[in-house]
Each structure stands twice: as C-alpha cells, then as structure tokens.
Amino acid sequence: MGPGPGRGWSVAISIALVAAMLAAAMIPWWPIYESPAFFAAAGAAILAGCGIGLAGARWSWPAWLVAVAVVAAYLVLGVPVAVPDRALFGVLPTPDGLVELVAGAALSWKQLVTIAVPVGSYQALLVPPFLLGLVASTVAVTIALRTNRPAAAALPPALLLVAGIALGVVHDDFALEAGLAFFVAAVAWFVRIGIADRRAIAGGRRVETTLADARRVLGASALVAVALVGATAAAVALPTPPRSVVRAELQPPFEPNDHDSPLAGFRTAFAPDSADEPMLDVRGLPEGAGLVVAVLDTYDGIVYSVGGSDGSGPSGRFSRVPYRLDQPVDGGTTERIDVAVEGYRDVWVPGIGRLERIEFAGPRADRLAESYFYNDATGTGAVVDGLRSGDRYVADSVVPASPSDLASLEPGTSVMPPLPELPARVVDLIDEWAPATATPGERLAGVIEGFHRDGYVSHGLEGEEPSRSGHALDRIEELVTEQPMVGDGEQYAVAAALMAREIGFPARVVVGYLPGPGSERDASTGSVRFTSADRQAWIEVQTSDGAWLPIDPNPVPRPIPEREPEQAKVVSRPESVLPPPAERTPLVDDDAGPGSTPDGGDDGDDWLQAMFAGLEITGIVLVGAVALCSPFLAIVVAKLRRRRLRRRAPTAVERIEGGWLEFADSAADYGYAIVPTATRAEQAATVGGLAPLVLASVVDRAVYAPGGPGHGDDHRVWETVDELRRRLGVSRSTRDRLRAAISLNSLGGYAVSRRGVRS
Fold first, then answer.
1. What residues have CB less than 8 Å from 542, skipping those under 6 apart?
2. Structure pTM?
C-alpha cells in the first residue's frame, strides 16, 4: 500500500512528486501561451488541486464534496488566473468574468486550436490548462493518498501531458524536454511507491530495507541516465517526423475558397457611378505605401485566388489572432495605421505588411474581434461577416522596405502552387525583355521596365481605348501581343507575376489601394482617403533573405497611341470570264472502218467506257471517304508520331518517362480520368490493377535513382507499356477501340479545374 495521510513527511514527499509530474505535464502547454499569465494559471491549478486532494484525504470527504470543492475553486480562482482581463483589481471575480469563465469551460477548446499562437492571456483561452490542471491534480493526489493503487496517480498527469501535445503547436519546441522531465518525475514517483511498499513488508528490519531502497534508487538513476542519453542521441541523429496535432487537422472556420477572388471584380471599382465613392480613411500610412486588401498566390489559368486550389496549403489556413503576433523585422519598419471604413464592403481586412496586432473599434468591435481570421503566410486578414461603414480598427504591422535595385535581387526558396503552361508569346516576350544570359534580378528588372515602357493603361470605359477585362491566360496572351500593349492592373499584375515565376522568383499578386489622383491626403492629420478608383493590383516577389518585396509593374497613365494597322491582306483579283469556245462542227465520216458494224456502233469501246465510268465513280467515292476520314487519320498519325518521338528520345530517362506518358495517354483515351498534376502512382491507381502500380514504381525508381536507369530498362518499360495498352483494349468492343484511337483526350490536354478534378 502506498503512503497514507497519517504520515507527515511521507505525505509531503508524495504530494511533491505528484506536483512534479503535473508541472512536467504542463510543459507542452507553454508554446501555446508564452506569457507569465500561464505560470499563474498552471501554478494556481496545481496548488489548488493538491490542496483539495489533501483535504479530502485528511478529513475523508466523500466524492461529491471533493467535486463541489473543485467547482468552487474553479469559480473563485478562475477569473483572476484564467480570465485576468475580467478580474477587478486583478484578483476579484466580476460578473462578466464569471460568465466568460463558465462559457470558456465549453467553448475555449475550439477557440484554442483555431487561433494563432502564442495567445497569452487573450479572452478565456487560459481556461483549458487551468481546468485540466485543477481536475488532474485533485484526482492524482486523491489516488496517491486514498487508494490501494497509488502508482495510478501517474495517469492524470499523463493525460494532462497528452492533452497539451494534442492541443499544442505543430512545431516540436520543448518536446524532448517535456518528455524527459515527465519521465524523470514518473520514475521518481514509482521508486517512491516501491520504497513505501517494501518498507511496509519489511517491517522493522531497517538495515535490509535501507540497502534495498539504495539499490532501487541507484537502479532508477541508471535507468534515467540511459534514457536521457538515448533520447538526446535519438533526437539529434534521427529525422523528426511531421507532428500531427488537433490544430493542424481541424477544419478552419474561414474558408477563402468560399469567397470570390478579390481580383475577379477589379473593373467594377472604376465604373462611373462608383469611381469617386470614398472607401477607406487611413491614418499613419507610410508615404508611397499601398494598402493591401488580399494577397493571391494560386492561379489556375482563369482566376488568381487566395489559399491554394483546395485550401489545404499554408496560404489557405486562416486562424484567429490573439492579442499579438511575433513578427521578425528583417530590415523593415513597424508602422501603425488607423483605418476608418466608409464605402468599403468586403470580408478582406485591408492592412500593410505582416500583422503584429489589431484592435477593432466602433459599435461592432467585439463582433469583429471574434470573427477576425488571419493568414500569416500571405499577410491576409478577413472577417467572416465582412466590413461595412462605421467599422474602425488600429493595426500594428512590420512593413518591408521597397527594393531600391531590382537587378541585385536573388530569388527566394518558397514553394508556390503550380502554374499552367504559359502561352508561347509570353515566354517569347520574357526572352525579348530579359535574356536568359542575365542574372535573375536583371531579368526581373527587364520585365518590369518593359511593362513601364511599352504598356498603356485603359479600364475599357466609355471614351477610353477598348480593353477587355479578365486575367485568364488568353487575356494575358492578348495583352502581350497587342501593339500598343493596353490593359490595367488586373492584367499587368498577373502578367508580371507569371513572368517573375518563369524567371525563378516566387511571386504573388497583391490587390489593394494605392494613392492616386482620386485619393486625398490631409496634411494636418496625415490621413489618406481612398476612393474606389484608387483600386490597384501589383506583385510581391520573395528574395533570397526570405522577405517579400512589393513591386508595381503598372505603367504610368499616359495618352495611348493609335493601334498599329494589321498586316494588309493580299486580295487576288477575280479571274476574267472568258467566253466559251466556239462549238466545233463535227466532221462526218461516211467511210466505215474495217471493224465497224453495219449499224455504225462500236462494241469494242463500250466496255472501256463502262470501266472508265466505274473508275470515276469509285474515285469520287474514295475522295469523299478520304475527305471525311482525314481528321481521324490525322489524329491517328499524330499519335503514331508522338509515340515514335517518345520511343526514340535521346536519353534513357526521357524514353522511360515517355513510356509512362504513352500509357497515361492511352488510359485517358479509353476514358480514365487521368489528372496530369497527379503522381504516377495516383494515375496508376486511377486505372486500377497491380501492373500499372508496378510500372509507376519502376519508372519513378529509374527516373529518380541516384545512378539513373540501368541498361535496357527503357526497352523493358516500353515492352510493359505495349502489354498494358493491349490489355486496355482487349476487353473492349471494336467500337470502343476505334473511339479510343481517334480520341482527342491525350492530344488536346486536360481541362483541370481549380480543385484538381477533371472538368
């Protein structure tokens, strides 16, 4: 039996060891808060729980009385330590604080995993560790002092440790320290239990008991030392797998893909009836800086949007913001802006740079604070219900410095969502403006200079040069093809981002407001009033130091020259109508030939004429059939030529990759939904069967193996491809095989939607 309540020093040691396990179990919670308030909440929970457990053991309280004591401690201590902002003088509970404390017992768990960390003492987010610590410490001390299984007292602290890991952060800071600290405390507790049990059995034999206790302590110490060395070595030598926590798996409450792209309705801001409407009044805006509405990083060839194709990437995860965010300065400056909303209505919250802190004011301040979400990867903020006239907020942000010399920049290393294949004319223009022999920075500077030099601005309004809206690939191709080049921020920003990505720079499109002719700056207050016509789009590129720098590719508005005339078409003159030849007078030959018949007929020519007539009809039919079948024959010939080029590629790796592409194209022609952006294994799984999966594995190994493919691997891959193509058609009807042979699926490409499914 473990230490009982009647032994003073024994009880004190037991409570101290249980408290040590509880304190170690609190370590994973620290990265969530990183605030002194956390120590107050955790310490108060452990002390109060241990005190309740000791009192219940000392006076033999029933279970219901222990539970009442826990609830009373929660209500009395909860507001000062778990909701300190609602405590009177910092120590006394208030009615509002009690309401928030009680509600936090049920609601703070979800809030905790949907908010950016560290959260400090924000609202009632300290309730989870305080409540769990209070309950765990009470139960652990009660088990240690009042049951016949005191070793089970390690279970409540263990559950507290697991809860801290599950509700904690994705990174593994303090993970090793927390595990080792809890392991040492738990071993010490088990040694304590073993010593107490041995002394109860040994009775008065103090010498034997002391020697046994010494051996037990030495053995436990050796075990702890081995564990410390092994855990440290493993943490250093072994790779750390991705950490899975609730925060990473929980579906965010704000989905950017549920809202239209801020770039989609760009032209509406310049309509004559809304261009002069005041949108935002901003104080503290740095000179020449822009107000960012949203940062877009995903382009599917039609729309530039926020948050990745399916919202699963870092740019698509929006979380609530606590009282502050720690942002590295990295050569930037910390600026504060005061924004008053006038005509602006949207879910996106305009700001500058990387947000550190935001405070809402006005009649909807509390509601906006509760529904504000932020994505730190792109620096984009949003409120679920949207901003409207009368709203106000103050934001502190780190603003990066504008680049002084684009030519000296080097590309960063961020991984961006994939882009569709660019039109050939766009690639040609990059080569024209920014030759590949130059450095990446020089090429980027050449592209931006090209837009400034050759571009002209028109929103396509009445009285302006015609300019089509939209930013799909065909519109971008039209922009770079027209002479002169005419568009607005919607096209220039997208084209510049695509070209920067092609050069090698991670690039994003920014939609916001720039001071322009319609904006008003008050010299006395320093405020800037943006109108609807101040809407603009520009780009951000990441440099080698990890900073995202704003770059404006838009040309300065100026008169647009007349369009260059199109190449004159050569019109051929109609041929002169010649009169029909004069009818020749037939010559009558009354002399019968030697082979003529008495009635003047010629039986020898009849069969020749009939044969020629038949051949003429057959030729006409054949020509018509060839004309009808020529498109299908062209498809078959194109596929045969493509297969020949793939099979005779110059390198073995290209021949192996070509073999897989031939199989994937054949599967697409037979109607399988082959997604071009999927991996080979995923494409093989779409077709089904073991053989495609084996082929995908062989191709991946041959392509990515350090030593390259082995001798003859390309021939074996193509033999397998031929067999798999034969299997695809063996169970099909002749009609299906013909339909696959003339299918355009593999020749015309695949129409892939933003979410990666076949359209």
1. 411, 412, 413, 414, 505, 506, 507, 548, 549
2. 0.54
